[in-house]
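Q: What changes when iron/sulfur cluster is included in the input?
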Amino acid sequence: MDSHQSRRQFLQAGLALPAVGIVSSDRLEPVFQENPSAPKVVYRTLGKTGLKVTGVGYGIGFVPVTDVVARAVDMGINYYDTSRDYGESEKIFSGVIKGKRDKIIIATKSGRTKKAQILEDLDTSLKVLGTDHVDILHLHGRDNPAQVPDESIEALEIGKKSGKARFIGFSCHDVNNMVPFILKTGKFDVIQTTYGFPIGGRYREQAIARLHEAGIGVIAMKVVVALSGFNLKTVENPPARPNGDGPLAGIKWVLQNPAISTTVPNMRTIPQLEMNFRAMSERYTPADEKLLTLLNEQIRPDYCRMCYECKGVCPKGLPVADMLRFLSYNDFYGDYHRAIVSFRDLAREVRDVRCSDCESCAIQCPNGVHIQDRLIRAQQLLA
Ligand code: SF4
Ligand code: SF4
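A: The predicted holo structure follows.
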């Protein structure tokens, strides 16, 4: 593919190319390089949508740091993920992208399930974002087919038909559980799922490959969270950090998989942004593997991989993997607000259980997470 082809295809997707070195194609073959040693924007195709997305996108999160988002847009990162469920996220983001809408791809999500609610969320998102369409409309956090009733799919299709959403999909943590449903339904253009070196990487590869083969664009989330060396639980006595390159290595690991179109790490500082940006054009190395292996061991007892391979069932009905994830929002993202909002969405009878009342836990983690200790901490912190 030459640069003219690349530009034409990109413009066909309704976007303009940024003025930086560009690498394109699923195989990461260079198109042109102004400076071979400089980090470059790399595009991948988002499944059958045909959208050319940068391998490193941006998870806007609850409270985006506007200077960092603006710099990312200027650097050419073109994929931005937000949600109606992230408080002021869309509103703050809208202030950054004024006059730049044609340079970026926006994905947003609705956490609701009824047709009218989802369509209401879509209209609100458009109003708040200051745009007449989003590129992708997701249902937010669906890990069970029962969470995707027919009327929610109908809402997505209405949104798509009206032109308010160009493409549709949903986000999930347990893609293995959802793949048969996704393929049988045949309605979704994209799926966003957890995928990363410690986070269920090997558990999810087959499922992701099946989606890719079906032409469904796959977006990886929660790619770097556990790899920054940040663990609030041990902040008084932080573990030795071999260096700060964990997130870079983590994104490079994910981008080795050609079935992944883009990633959506949250970035809060310019150095974080610049480091993540490099992951698009740097190769994954044995040193990266060594670093990730070391970091993976450091976080082993505390970080739930979201693999859903827990052995046993809680007799008191706790959704263990979900609760561990909520605690991770605090301990690994440093986002207490998100942790407590998620925890308080649980049913009252679940929130009232105290794991400290059990002599031992009925559930074992094959990855070595200390489940009972972690849940006691979650209940002390969030209940
Ligand atoms: S507790 Fe362990 S087995 Fe269960 S989801 Fe987390 S990492 Fe997987
Ligand atoms: S310790 Fe918690 S998760 Fe484990 S069995 Fe008891 S209530 Fe369930």
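Observations recorded in class: Residues 1-34, 237-243 have pLDDT under 50 and may be disordered.
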